Amino acid sequence: MNDLFIEILKKYKSKEFHIAFVGAIKAGKSTLINSFLGRNLTSISVTPETAALTKIRASKDKDYIKLKFYNKKEWTNLWESIDESQSDIFKREYLALEADKIKDKWVGTEDKKISFDDQKEFKKVIRKWTSSKKAAHYFVKEVEIGLKDFSLPERVVFIDTPGLDDPIEYRSKITREYIDKANAVLVCIQADAMTGQELSTIYRVFSNTPHNPGKVYVIGTKLDNLNKPLIDWEKQRGEWLKRLEEDACYGNKELAKNNLVSASAYMYNMLKQYDNLSEETIDYELEPMTKRFRIKNIDDNLNKLLDVTNIAKIKNKIENEIINKHEIIFLEDIKEHYENIKFDLVNIFQNIKSENQELLQVADEDIKEIKNKKIESLNRLEESKKEKEELEETLTEVKNLTRKRSNELSNYIEDLL
Ligand SMILES: Nc1nc2c(ncn2[C@@H]2O[C@H](COP(=O)(O)OP(=O)(O)OP(=O)(O)O)[C@@H](O)[C@H]2O)c(=O)[nH]1
Ligand SMILES: [Mg+2]
């Protein structure tokens, strides 16, 4: 029982909370992450871009990048799986980028961590290791980005993933496998198209997490691409909900309604940098978008425009529904174990009591037998005392931990308000 508790405490201590951003290639995953981060960090492009699983989390100190490389065995396996997949895109791109020239430099290399003061340099290095246009990305198994201004709790990790339909099979496989592991999944689907392909992406995600559809949020991305975003989305939403309510997805109307949101991350990111945008960008990129929302004067309507992008709304959902809910579930979990232990303690002492009563009842019996029973009972009492001490120790540990987590949670909720 004690071991079980120690296991739980350990699990809780090291528990990371993973929020994965998945979807088809070019669905706007990286752009959406950037809007939550408040800076354009993850690489975005009009062609397949994110090639390595990229974890983003808080850094206590400076911004950093941490790289994990394939070892020789993993690299050989990867090549074999590419041979088997019968797709030659990987090899063609690999050749074109002359990646083989730098293979020996990176395969089997120890993990590497680099810290940064300079933002430009930081972005350049992130691109070097995550972009499918750079040769180095082939050899990196996982990239971790640490941000000193990450606004979510330390344990929260965002995961930018390669597209689920990435033509390079091993990349999409990494993403598929990740869906089950993640604590929450944000599926990005372009708001202007719910075609068969998009649906199959959605079904793929739900089939990877059959027991917990509630952890999936469907984000209709690039809302600004609709002709009349607000009106068109309402219609579109009705159609999407019909699909999402089905058993293959949420299997529940209310859950589907709550977990489907549209977003315009690109417009949000532009509006956030509005003061630094060139006139040309404002005239030819931003204004046409804002006009589709039937809003003309950007200067006077900045907050209204930020509001229609829904980014703040989704961020709130991440904090209030996903992270906080998870913290509460965990506290409940600990509380339940605490109650179980209390129950066991009561049982132990009730048993001792009834054994002693038995001892009195046999008082008439042979004196020798009484003595033996007494010794046996004393031994058991000794054992129980020990067990009681151990349990009390664990209880104190749990109490402290629960108190600490509650404080953290209420501080965190206070911060949010
Ligand atoms: N208009 C508009 N364009 C967007 C939006 N979000 C992303 N884009 C554009 O769509 C393209 C793809 O965006 P990414 O964020 O790279 O998409 P991704 O899903 O990360 O793509 P991969 O990593 O290649 O799978 C880029 O040209 C973005 O500028 C949006 O909200 N509105
Ligand atoms: Mg990307």
TrEMBL record:
InterPro entries: Dynamin_N, P-loop_NTPase, TRAFAC_Dynamin-like_GTPase
Tree of life domain: Bacteria
UniProt key word Cytoplasm: no
Keywords: Coiled coil
The UniProt record lists the keyword Coiled coil: yes
SUPFAM superfamilies: P-loop containing nucleoside triphosphate hydrolases (SSF52540)
Pfam families: Dynamin_N
Coiled-coil positions: 353-411
Domain Dynamin N-terminal: 19-205
Name by which UniProt lists this protein: Dynamin family protein
